[in-house]
User: What shape does this take?
Amino acid sequence: MPHLVIHQKKLTPALVQTLIGLCPFGAISEQNGQLVIGSGCRLCRQCVKAGEGAVELCGDAPAAAVDKSLWRGIAVFAELRGSEVHPVVPELIGKALELRESCPQPVWAVLVGHGCHDAARELAHYGADAVYVYDDPLLDGFDPQRYTACLSDFIVRQHPAAVMVGATMLGRSLAPRTAARFRTGLTADCTRLEMRENSDLVQIRPAFGGNIMARILTPHARPQFCTVRYRVFDRAARRSTPAGPVISLPLPGAALSSGTEIIKRLDRPQEVDISEAERIVAVGRGVRDQRGLELARRLARALDAQLACSRPMVESGAFDPRRQIGLSGRTVKPSLLIALGISGSVQFAAGMGGAECIIAINQDAAAPIMRLAHIAVEGDLYQILPALLERIEKGEATHA
Ligand SMILES: Cc1cc2nc3c(=O)[nH]c(=O)nc-3n(C[C@H](O)[C@H](O)[C@H](O)COP(=O)(O)OP(=O)(O)OC[C@H]3O[C@@H](n4cnc5c(N)ncnc54)[C@H](O)[C@@H]3O)c2cc1C
Assistant: This one.
C-alpha cells in the first residue's frame, strides 16, 4: 500500500509551514513538534514534490510498462435507444475524429444489440472507419454481463488505445465493468478530451466540487476508458455516403450465459430530458415563492421552453432532480437559456457551457452569471417578468 513517511530530521521550521500551507486537504499538521499526516490525506503527492526529501512516498508499486504501439484506434461504444443509435454516439464520433488529428489512428464504432443492422448502416455515415456489430437475440435489451463480454471481445480483437462511452445509465454500468476487466483507468463525465502523440488521452473534468479542472491520464495501461455526457461535444456531420464498412462479429462465448434472467420487460414512461431541450427557462434561488414560479412557468409556456433549475431548487423540493442543470445534474446545450435568479456558480455553469444564447436576469450585476451571459439584464425578476410576459402574450415580442 502506498503511504507517506516523514523524515523529521530533514525538516526546517520554514519547510514545516510550507508543507502545512500547501496541502489542499488540510491533512498536514504539527503535533508536539512533529509533522503529522492525518486521515484527510489523499496521496496527492504535493508534499512529496515540495518536501525537499523530507516526505517520501513508500510502497508505491512500480507501474508495469505497456507497449503503446500495440494499442491503436479509438473505439466508440454505440449505445442503442430503441431501434436507433443514442444521439450521444455521433457526438463521441465527432470528438474521436478530432482527437485523431493529433495522433493518427482509426476510429471505430461498436454496436451491441439485436436487429441493429439498420442502425449500424445509418451510423456508418458519421465518419467512423468501420462499424462493428454484435447482433444476436441474446443481446436484445441491456444485460450488463453479456454487453461487457461483447465490448471486451472487441477490445481483445482490435486493441484500441481509447474507448469512449456515453455517460448514460447504460454507459455508466458498462464502462466501469469493462475497464475493470482490463485493469485500466476510467474517467467519468469528461468535459474535454485531448490526445498526445503517444496516444495518451488527456481526460479533463471538473473535480473537488468544480473548483479545479483535473487533467487525468492513464499512462501505464491500455485501453483508456472515458465516459462523456450527452450534449458536451459537437456531433459529427452526417455524410451522404458511408465512411466505412459494417462488420458483423460473432457472439463471444462469454456472452452465452448471464447471471441475469429477464422475466418481463416494462416500458418506462417517457422521461423529461432537459438535455434535449432547444429552449430552457432555468429557475434559481432568486425565484423565492409560488408567484415567481408561476411567472417562470408562464415564460416557459410562452416560449415553448422546458423548465429547468439550479440545485437549491431541487433540494427545496420545488423541482424534480431530472430538471437540475450542472455538475451533479444534467448538461444542456439549448439554443436559448434564460437564467432567472441564478448566481452562476461553477457547478451550475459546468452544465450549460454549450448554450448558444444565455440571457440572465439577476438583481446583482456582480453575479458570475452576468459575465457568462450573452445578454445580462440587471434588475428584479418580479418586476421584469410581468412586463416581459405582457409584451410576449400581446404578441409585441415573439421571443425574449
Ligand atoms: C459538489 C457540488 C456539486 C454541485 N452541483 C450543482 C449542480 O449540479 N447544479 C447547481 O445548480 N448547483 C450545484 N451545486 C451548488 C452550487 O455550488 C450553488 O450553491 C448553486 O448553484 C446556487 O444556486 P442558485 O444560483 O440558484 O442560488 P444563489 O447562489 O443563492 O443565487 C441566487 C441568485 O438570485 C439572485 N436574485 C435574488 N433575488 C432576485 C430577484 N428578485 N431578481 C433577480 N435576481 C435575484 C441573486 O442575486 C443571486 O445571484 C453543487 C455544489 C457542490 C459542492
